[in-house]
Amino acid sequence: MRKLIVSEFVEPRRILVACGIACAFSPVLHAQEPRVFADAPPASWIAPPGAPADSFTVFHARRAFDLPSVPARFLVHVSADNRYRLYVNGEQVSSGPQRSDIAHWRYETIDLARRLRAGRNVIAALVWNWGAARPVAQHSYRTGFLLQGSGPVEAALVNTGTNWRVLRDSAYTPIVITTASLRGYYAAAPGDSIDGSRYPWGWERADYVDEAWSAAAVVGRVQRRATAPGGYGEVSGWQLEPRSIPPMEETVQRLAHVRRVIGVKSDSLFLQGAGDLVIPARTTAAILLDQSHTTNEYPILETSGGAGSTVRLTYAEALIDSAGDKGNRNDIAGRTIKGVHDAFLPDGGGHRRFTSLYWRSFRYIQLDIKTADEPLRVHDLHGIFTAYPFVERGRFTSDLPWLTQMWRMNWNGARIGAFETYMDTPYWEQLQYIGDTRIQALISLYVAGDDRLERQAIEHFDWSRIPEGLTTSRYPSALTQIIPPFSLIYIAMVHDYFMHRDDRAFVRERLAGVRSILDWFERHVDATGMLGPMPYWNYVDWTPRWDRGVPPGADNGHSTTISLLYVYALQRAAELEEASGTLESGSAYRAKAEGVLRAVRARSWNSARGLFRDAPQTSAYSQQTNVLAVLVDAAPVAAQRRLMERVLADTTLTPASYYFSFYLFEALRKAGLGDRYIERLAPWQKMLQLGLTSAPENPEPTRSDTHAWSAHPNYGLLATVLGVRPSSPGFRTVGIAPALGPLRRAAGRVPHPLGDIDVQLEREGKSGVKAEITLPRGLSGSFEWMGQRRPLREGRQIIRVE
Question: For residue 263, what pLDDT is reported?
């Protein structure tokens, strides 16, 4: 597939602060500050005159300038609120900014030289603010656009200010999508209605005449950082920081199939741009298209003619029957589409190219077309796939073919669940939740070997902390939500990074946040030694037996489940402290963990059933509670295997969801039952039988068909079945302890900071194994099978264990 955008993105440094127009303006930078803007006059934030600060607004901005010759470099820094697309001489070069909050507002640094030419050049931007229809994940200060030349030459030519021309675009109207209309919580972007008769076609091209446009209004200035020496420490408006992750992938992706046509004759040629779909005058038509898998795309509709017609594009992960059920995702008979939608209104002109402001997530698209007195020609309908640019380095193969299908399903879900942040679901919410993100980050490390999006997430959750000390449950999010157990999982996420990346400085920066979380929980431990009543939403896992996913005792006090999760975080925090040299803090956390464990054993253990209760005064038992008991050694090590066998066999226990089965699988491995991992993947085999192409949020009926927290078996196949895990912090050494279960053969690759770890395993005889293992240069470790351990060195080696 052809990459549509090859962005001239330059890895920048953290730089200046931009503030509202009322802030003091200081063009002089302190000598100790980063000088990315050098001595160039700083740019201004601009918007159309009279444009509201926080209402729905779409505007175009242009700057024409002349060059005597093409420069070797032409660096600019660009940002907007809420978002922008940047064009140079009609070609798109950037899209952003990277999503964050106002205190860490992002800008991109781009080298435009490749797009410039001798003579007249035009830089143009499409900028929009969703206003009240903003996604929940979208922060905003006010509508604005900023482009700053990196040096004095660039600044003199292109800095945003009153010399830019702007046009507020009245063609756009938001289509508000509500939770009620979709019958499921919706927090993502609105749909777009675009009136072609109002749209300034060709606005981005160099030959467009913009004389009727207005001069831009200045709505903010770029100034020194509030933290810079010599300033007054005032903080207002956009606090600029450089982009921390690469540009998103944008790749042409053709729609796969026409599945149903009503009211018009059609073939699939228009899906390849190889023939026109003609909708006669005064015709109503519906065309159902199937991409064959869930995906994220900007829809691109190219038309001509059709004045007065309406084209509605509806996007859905699956079709539904008359009862609202999805059933097999491949079936269309008796099923209809319901979902997020856009409306494109052709103006009757020549070749028109419609696209939405933001990308859509879907498997199915339905075109509902109604023409007036003129036929409409559809020349092309395709998509621009977009997601974080993960590269699939990891792999897994075996003699069980359906595991390969599951791997593809899970990796597709993990890919489209990652954009400028991780997302719980790309269709419904696009919010970065801690519980989801921990799992998604591990998948990223093991399959892509890319830690940049994980670092972004850890930083954002750290920045989200409220004065009480807890993180918010999700961030960036303009709507604050507190889930105290997720703050504990945040600590586990920091520990995951600590184990997989040798980056002590980054981990050390997180310790203040880790301590503040644990201080909050310590204040809620009561005289019983367990956690007492706790405020906010004490969600642990979606299960029909727990109201709102909250285990017994969580709100009123003495939840065994959350007390054990608190221990889980304390134990990991102790390792972080000790590795950072604060041994006393580590010892204190271990002592606190032991105190809670003593209380849990005394109050929640039922020796007759051989299980831990969900709370001391309840008769409720769950997989979740007893899984955590194994993970934190609430049960003696020698008894953990027996306890986990009960967890698997006792059908009266509250079952773990797809999400919490990640922890169940980790407990299986810890208890020495890793060989049962493959058999526990039966729900994922059922997903494939239902035609799912990404793992869903929950068993049927499920709101979301793409929830990457359910994609964790891709991590498990590599970390448990192949058994590749760090055996020391920073992944400085590796331990490989396979758990093949029913498999006779398995092979795979795990990315490592030093290179790739390749493992090929084949059973020999009743209990032996032949292992061919290749470690990258500088990495050593050990191989373990049936209690026997062998050393591993860099390079290729063959090990046989009888």
Answer: 97
pLDDT digit string (tens) for 92-111?
Answer: 999 999 999 999 999 999 99
Q: Looking at residues 597-616, what average pLDDT do you find?
A: 98
Return the pLDDT at 2: 40
Determine the Cα–Cα distance for residues 86 and 88; give it in Å rounded to an integer.
7
pLDDT value, residue 511: 98
- Amino acid letter, 211: E
**How many C-beta atoms lie closer than 10 Å to residue 107's C-beta?**
27
CA proximity to 363, closest of 690, 770, 734? 690
219: three-class secondary structure by DSSP: strand
Closest C-alpha to 296, from 387, 357, 380 = 387
Q: What letter does residue 457 receive in the DSSP assignment?
A: H
pLDDT score for 10: 67
The dihedrals phi and psi of 672, each to the nearest 5 degrees, come to 85, 20
Residue with tokens 């029909």: 544
Q: What residues contact 752, with CB distance under 8 A and at least 6 apart?
A: 449, 731, 734, 776, 779
User: Quick one: pLDDT at residue 32?
Assistant: 33
**Cβ atoms < 10 Å from Cβ of 232:** 8
Angle made by CA atoms 25, 27, 31, in degrees to the nearest 5: 125
User: Angle at the Cα of 385 (from 247 to 377), degrees rounded to 5?
Assistant: 130
Confidence of residue 37 (pLDDT cuts 50, 70, 90): low
pLDDT at 265 over 70: yes
Rg of the chain on CA atoms, in Å = 28
Question: How big is the CA angle at 76 (ends 73 and 82), to the nearest 5 degrees?
Answer: 150
User: Is 396 in contact with 678 (CB distance < 8 Å)?
Assistant: no
Q: Determine if the peptide bond prior to 476 is cis (ω within 30°).
A: yes
Place of tokens 């999006």: 453
pLDDT of 224 > 60? The answer is no
Please tell me the distance from the alpha carbon of residue 618 to that of residue 556, in angstroms, as a whole number: 12
C-alpha distances (whole Å) from 48 to each of 131, 173, 276, 478 are 15, 17, 38, 25
Q: Angle CA(554)–CA(559)–CA(562) in degrees, nearest 5?
A: 85
556, 533 Cβ separation under 8 angstroms: yes
Averaged pLDDT score across all residues of the chain: 94
- Residue 217 tokens read as 């209004």
- With helix as H, strand as E and coil as C, how does 619-646 read? CCEEHHHHHHHHHCCCCCHHHHHHHHHH
Rounded to whole angstroms, how far apart are CA atoms 685 and 471?
Answer: 36
Are the beta carbons of 663 and 653 closer than 8 angstroms? no
C-beta separation of 194 from 345 below 8 A: yes
Peptide bond into 636 cis (omega under 30): no
* Of 657, 594, 598, the residue nearest 622 (C-alpha): 657
**Omega within 30 of 0 (cis) for the link into 82:** yes
Mean pLDDT of 683-694: 98
Q: What is the DSSP letter of 720?
A: I
**Tokens representing residue 759 in the block:** 């493992």
Task: Output b/e per residue, 389-428; b: 16+ Cβ within 10 A.
Answer: bbeeebbbbbebeebeebbbbbbbbbbbbbbbbbbbbbbb
Amino acid sitting at position 661: S
Q: How far is CA 21 from CA 77, 223, 485, in A?
A: 19, 11, 41
Looking at residue 474, the DSSP 8-state letter turns out to be: B
Mean pLDDT to the nearest integer, 211-215: 97
Region 5-30 average pLDDT: 39
Question: What does DSSP say about strands 733-736 and 724-726: parallel, antiparallel, or unpaired?
Answer: antiparallel
Tens of pLDDT, residue by residue over 134-178, are 999 999 999 999 999 999 999 999 999 999 999 999 999 999 999
Q: Which two tokens stand for residue 565?
A: 């999760």
Q: Work out the widest C-alpha separation in the chain, in whole angstroms.
A: 87
The single-letter code of the amino acid at 726 is P
**HSE-up (13 A, CA, CB side) for residue 687:** 30
Q: Is the pTM of this model over 0.85?
A: yes
pLDDT at 15: 38
- What is the mean pLDDT of the segment spanning 722-731? 98
